[in-house]
Structure formats: structure tokens, C-alpha cells
Specification:
Layout (H helix, E strand, L loop, with lengths): L1 E2 L5 E2 L15 E3 L3 E5 L5 E11 L5 E11 H5 L1 E5 L2 E5 L4 E9 L7 E11 L3 E11 L5 E6 L19 E6 L29
Parallel strand pairs: 4-11
Antiparallel strand pairs: 1-2, 3-5, 5-9, 6-8, 6-10, 7-9, 10-11, 12-13
């Protein structure tokens, strides 16, 4: 509406059509994840959150460990394993579990996880896994000492001696040798040996 020079009022009406296109957008709330996993074990090392920041559903969201030592040598699993649909302004947390082989050397290793959607793009998260190999033992014996009496050339005495060795470190003890010293002429009947 406007005012003309002759004091009359003029008007104009225009119709404008606006089309909003579908625009699904995938985003992940972090770029790095770190965790410690002992040799021969599986651990949940962390999580990341998938965000749907566009104006339409994200569909067929998949996760993979795509490159690096972590991806080539360890087992990396995601929970959930995928997301079929994630609506606008919604998010979903994904747990990451890593299994390390029993004999893998201690050290810090890196990999790259890929998070992809069929229609909303992709994002990467770098994963760092520390493998520590700290073994430390405690030894307990029962009884702690044994007194033997009345032993002669013709008379012997038997007794039970139990030793428990516990690995209190965070690494797997490998090729462990346990030995006991006996006085000359003594014999031992060892049994019930187990590890686990």
C-alpha cells in the first residue's frame, strides 16, 4: 500500500511461492575417542552421538571401522549395529566395543571410524586404543610354614601345601613359569594346576 501524489491510495498484491527442499544432514558430536583395552580382552571404549540436524529424516545410517591399525587388527563392534531412520532434530548414541588379540604388542594404536547415511552425508571419528601390558603378581601359600616331626628312615609324613598366584596387573601373563625348591631327597606330587 502507498500514497499517490494526488492523495489517492495505491495497492498491489503479489503471490510468492516458496518451496522448501528436503535436506537431511548427518553430524557426529565428536571427532576423537580413546580407550584402554588389555591384550586378549574386549571393552566398551566409549560412544558417539549421531545427530540429525537437517529438515528431513536420515535413513540407512551405517558404521564401520575403515582404516588404521585398530581397524585392520582389532575387532570393532557398534551397538546398535546401524540406524534405519533418524528424524529431524533427533539423536542416537552408539556404543563402541573393541576386542584386542591375545598376543598383540603393547602400544598406542589409531583407526578411523566412518558414520554414513544414505541421504545425509558422512562423518569420521578417530579412535585411539592403548594396550598396556602390566603384569604384577601376588603369591599366597597355605600353610605359610610346615613343621615335620618324627621322620625316620622308615617313616614318612605327608602334608598339603597350596600356593595361589594372582595376576593383579592389567595385562595377560604369558609363558609364566612357577617353580618350588625342595630339600634334597624330597619329592612332590603336584596337582590341581589351573589358570583362568
Amino acid at each position: 500500500t502507498w500514497l499517490n501524489p494526488n492523495i489517492s491510495i495505491g495497492t498491489n498484491q503479489t503471490t510468492l511461492n516458496v518451496t522448501v527442499s528436503s535436506w537431511p544432514v548427518l553430524d557426529v558430536n565428536q571427532t576423537n575417542m580413546s580407550g584402554t583395552v588389555p591384550q586378549g580382552e574386549e571393552r566398551t571404549v566409549g560412544n558417539f552421538t549421531v545427530l540429525s540436524t537437517g529438515n528431513d529424516n536420515l535413513t540407512n545410517i551405517t558404521f564401520s571401522c575403515s582404516s588404521g591399525v585398530v581397524c585392520a587388527n582389532f575387532t570393532v563392534e557398534f551397538s546398535p549395529t546401524n540406524i534405519s531412520t533418524l528424524g529431524p532434530a533427533l539423536n542416537q548414541t552408539v556404543l563402541v566395543n573393541v576386542s584386542v588379540p591375545f598376543d598383540f604388542p603393547a602400544g598406542l594404536y589409531t583407526g578411523s571410524m566412518n558414520i554414513s547415511s544414505a541421504d545425509g552425508g558422512w562423518d569420521n571419528v578417530t579412535i585411539h586404543i592403548l594396550i598396556e601390558n602390566i603384569t604384577s603378581f601376588t603369591v599366597t601359600s597355605s600353610p605359610s610354614s610346615q613343621t615335620v616331626t618324627s621322620i625316620t628312615q622308615n617313616t614318612s609324613q605327608n602334608f598339603t601345601f597350596t600356593t595361589n598366584i594372582t595376576n593383579t596387573g592389567n595385562g595377560t601373563a604369558k609363558i609364566t613359569n612357577i617353580s618350588a625348591s625342595l630339600p634334597a631327597g624330597w619329592t612332590i606330587n603336584a596337582s590341581n594346576q589351573s589358570c583362568g
